[in-house]
Design brief:
The chain is 22% helix and 34% strand. The chain is an alpha+beta fold and 337 residues long. The protein has a 10-stranded mixed β-sheet with strand order 17-10-11-12-9-13-16-15-14-18, with helices on one face. Strands 2-3-4-1-5-8-7-6 form an 8-stranded mixed β-sheet. It is globular, with a radius of gyration of 19 Å. Bound molecules: fe (ii) ion (FE2). Fe (ii) ion is lined by residues 152, 154, 221, 223, 272.
């Protein structure tokens, strides 16, 4: 194997879009537009886009059976970093596929490369987002994207060290901090990784000392950052009034101090709307471990004993399920310090 090129791409990488595969278009349209308050563009019967800003697509919903996040799109700031990442993946012997112009256009980008990611989540990189001149028609006043990227995703894993290794190899991800938490009787450890000034773009949770994954979907939750506290409050109210399930009521996180709630999407994974997370100062930041995910709030809503038993049942099933981490890119992994 050739040595991977070494120029650092930290800071040049931003979460750019998320691809969701679903059959539940009617519910998703209501959820995204009427509850969360995003701009919706109907492309055709099998494809809708949600916009948060002038980028043509921040969420790409394509028809299919997964009811899950199937791909993450990463905006790379410049062509040098883009080529650096491509060279790195190839140097590790992992194939990179160039999407057709049409496929790239359906994601709202130009020049799109794809490569395999952990848990079957395809990773996609692009350097040129396509923007829309069409004004946003949405209930929210705005969302924070820009240098921080569009939010974050949280992934449960039975191989957390390998996931850290993967995102370190591909994007030079850095460890921001850890949280230890007990949820539904399970002791969890969560690692928060950043690829730019955003406190975290990837969170990786595992059940300590048990090789089980309690979550059916590849992504446990995703997060978008609302522009104002008022947007969080109003969208919370709309989620409730429209009858969508709330997973965790409003609360504030210990580590990034983000104030947020978690709704359940029509596909089953959770959707966090947050406000005002801290921004990392690279000159002074030191990783630490927090006890518990929340300073206050984030109380589970309507969770029954049946849900908890279901979680254990799914977890037991995961013992028999293989989790692919793309070992050529994850290497031996990065253990928790
Ligand atoms: Fe989150």
């Amino acid at each position: 194997m050739n040595a991977a090129p070494t120029a650092n791409v930290f800071g040049a990488v931003h979460l750019g879009y998320i691809v969701i595969e679903t059959e539940r278009f009617t519910d998703w349209r209501r959820f995204g537009t009427d509850a969360i308050g995003m701009h919706c563009d109907e492309i055709d019967n099998d494809l809708i886009h949600f916009r948060l800003d002038d980028q043509q697509a921040r969420f790409v919903l394509q028809r299919g059976p997964a009811e899950d996040v199937v791909a993450l799109g990463w905006h790379i700031d410049d062509h040098d970093s883009f080529e650096q990442i491509e060279a790195r993946i190839l140097a590790h012997g992992v194939p990179v596929t160039r999407a057709t112009d049409n496929e790239a256009a359906l994601r709202g980008v130009a020049r799109l490369l794809r490569f395999p990611g952990p848990k079957g989540i395809t990773q996609e990189i692009y350097a040129e987002p396509l923007t829309s001149a069409e004004p946003l028609r949405m209930l929210a006043s705005g969302f924070v994207t820009g240098d921080s990227g569009m939010g974050h995703v949280a992934i449960t894993s039975i191989k957390p060290a390998q996931l850290r290794g993967y995102f370190n190899t591909v994007f030079d991800a850095r460890l921001t901090d850890f949280i230890d938490e007990t949820i539904s009787g399970l002791k969890l450890k969560i690692r928060f990784l950043r690829v730019n000034e955003r406190h975290h773009t990837i969170a990786i949770a595992n059940v300590q000392s048990l090789p089980i994954d309690p979550i059916r979907t590849r992504v446990q939750h995703l997060n978008i950052q609302a522009a104002t506290l008022d947007d969080v409050a109003r969208s919370y109210q709309r989620v409730c009034e429209l009858g969508f399930d709330m997973a965790l009521a409003v609360g504030q996180h210990t580590n990034d101090r983000e104030l947020s709630y978690y709704a359940r999407t029509p596909s089953g994974f959770e959707w966090e709307v947050g406000w005002n997370p801290i921004v990392i100062d690279e000159r002074t930041w030191e990783p630490s471990t927090h006890q518990g995910i929340s300073i206050w709030g984030h109380k589970p809503v309507g969770q029954t004993i049946i849900d908890k038993l279901d979680q254990f049942r799914l977890g037991t099933r995961s013992l028999a399920r293989r989790e692919d981490t793309v070992s050529a890119l994850s290497g031996d992994g990065i253990p928790d310090d």
